[in-house]
Write a structure and sequence with these properties.
Porin, 5-stranded antiparallel sheet, 242 residues, mainly beta
Length: 242
């Protein structure tokens, strides 16, 4: 992580220490932006994806060219649904309850420096709030028979940090209306992942629940450990300036 931060620091220092190009413009001090459309991509697989959500951003002009801000990604609300395991038989279905807590919620500090007219560079550092995923109560359905398997598997994803540098375009269309576009590239941690299993051994006698067997088999056959990763983001924003 320290090595990655050092790599990011070098271009940041070069960017923010560079002189302004001519034809600079006057800018308002307060900028408020909303980004309803964001594309996130991680390059290492498997990695913990950061899902797209609406972002709200406030920026304050320390000088005419240097802005300090904060961005809040509102994330996605928790969800409950019925999911199924793939089956090789048309006559057998395996259905379980799936639920998630609120996820992809982020807080980011932004430092932006206009290098020419409407073009700026940025340095960003943030944190994604942790969340949990639960899979409960598998039911195996064969023809007209239903076999319940009481079981709970809870996956807890801890908070994780990320940082990036970016280049963007922000323009005041009129006296106060803003449009903006930014591309960022940086480094994001995998974050710690904890698994918790709950079931009654007496119910299964000498066997394991199907979901637990499937979990162990998947870990043996596949590399499921999440990796730290380089990532990129595309922002399209609109707002107003005061």
């Amino acid at each position: 992580m320290i090595k990655k931060i050092r790599i990011l620091t070098i271009p940041i220092l070069l960017i923010f220490s560079s002189p302004l190009l001519p034809n600079d413009v006057e800018r308002k001090k307060y900028h408020f932006l909303i980004s309803p459309w964001i594309i996130n991509t991680t390059f290492e697989k498997p990695s913990r994806e950061l899902d797209s959500s609406v972002n709200l951003q406030f920026l304050y002009g320390l000088t005419n060219n240097l802005y300090l801000g904060v961005t809040y990604g509102i994330g996605k609300n928790g969800d409950k649904s019925l999911e199924s395991f793939p089956s090789s038989s048309y006559f057998t279905s395996r259905i379980y309850q799936f639920s998630t807590s609120k996820n992809s919620e982020t807080f980011t500090l932004n430092l932006q420096y206009f290098i020419w007219k409407f073009v700026y560079t940025s340095f960003n550092i943030g944190i994604e709030k942790g969340f949990s995923v639960e899979r409960n109560n598998l039911a195996i359905i064969r023809a007209n028979n239903i076999t319940p398997q009481p079981f709970s598997m809870k996956t807890i994803f801890d908070d994780r940090t990320f940082s990036s540098i970016g280049i963007g375009f922000r323009h005041e269309l009129s006296s106060s209306i803003l449009i903006a576009f930014e591309y960022q590239r940086g480094y994001i941690e995998a974050g710690k992942v904890n698994q918790h299993f709950t079931y009654n051994p007496d119910y299964y006698v000498n066997n394991l629940p199907y979901m637990l067997e499937n979990f162990y088999l998947n870990n043996i056959l596949n590399d499921t450990s999440l990796k730290n990763s380089l990532y990129q983001q595309f922002y399209l924003s609109a707002g107003f300036a005061l």
